[in-house]
Prior knowledge:
Layout: H1 12-35, H2 38-44, H3 49-56, H4 60-72, E1 76-79, E2 83-86, H5 88-119, H6 128-134, H7 136-150, H8 155-163, E3 165-170, H9 176-184, E4 188-194, H10 197-207, E5 210-213, E6 225-231, H11 240-250, E7 251-260, H12 269-274, H13 278-290, H14 301-310, E8 315-319, E9 328-332
Parallel strand pairs: 3-4, 3-6, 4-5, 6-7
Antiparallel strand pairs: 1-2, 7-9, 8-9
Amino acid sequence: MTSEPTPVDFPGKTSRVRLYLEGFWGTWLLHVGRELGLFEALAQEPRTAANLASHLGYELGYIEVWCRAAHAYEFLSGSAEEGYTLEPEAEALAPGLGAWVNTYIQVTQRVYESLEAVFRGKAFPEPSLSLRMLLADGLRSSYAHLWEHQIPQVEALYERFKKGGRLVEFGCGCGYGLEQLRKVYPEVEPTGIEPDYECAREAERATRSVIVVGTAEECRYEDRFDYAVFHRSLSLTEDPADALKRAVGALKKGGYLIVSSEAQLPSSEGERRALEPRLRLGERFFYQMFLAPDSLRNFTSEEIVQWCAAAGAPLVVYLPGSEQGSPVFIFKREGKKGRS
């Protein structure tokens, strides 16, 4: 008589390694499910592996293995005998997670191609334009979440966005955010500032907006914009405090400054020392491989709030990040609104 094996309790560091491995394979399951239309077919109606394979014209053996694995990861509900269907939670997250997964896969493939050369110092730095294009799916998804889900959470800001106004994005890259902005808030007039010439040229072509080549610290606009945005770009500035000061100065009185961070920031210096934020350090490692050493600045959420307050823009609201979006700080420049 046989019995079910007793699950192994992985303690401490070994348990964390197991979670990393599970995350890696889960990412590939998501990628295959999205790219080959498996999730879409299972969202329509319950299907057995045989029915799914026949419906899409795929080999049954591969579909059976994928279905069992996706069920184990709780992407699917049901059973092999009665048929599988897509979990409601997985269906709701699919659009945003799909973009993130595609980005992860593309970046991983590029790392595989150049890993040894990068570590030996023999590879040329990845051009910023090429890097932004690798990250395109993930960036578009995070921008869409910002414009469509996070901005509407602040009623006064949302109502103002719907009416229009002028917006400047610092570190706009290839213009993915400004491109999404035009679709969601067509009355807003966008301007971009981007230090990389090739990225700026691509942004201008894609958005047909005014794109200025330069850094946030070089910004000379004053009292011009209704909104200023740093979307995952503040950490790439040489002097974050000065960059924020220039951004506040570019706003009209009563204008809004929106700052999205790459990941959850430590709230204070003490927390930063006590807890090493893995996501941020992992991102730092990636950028060092492809761009340059120390390309991401370290700061805390407390520092961002203090720098903006000193520049005359106190915090209005903080929106925590989610599976599909970045943490967002929203500030408002003090004083009455200036003339348009």
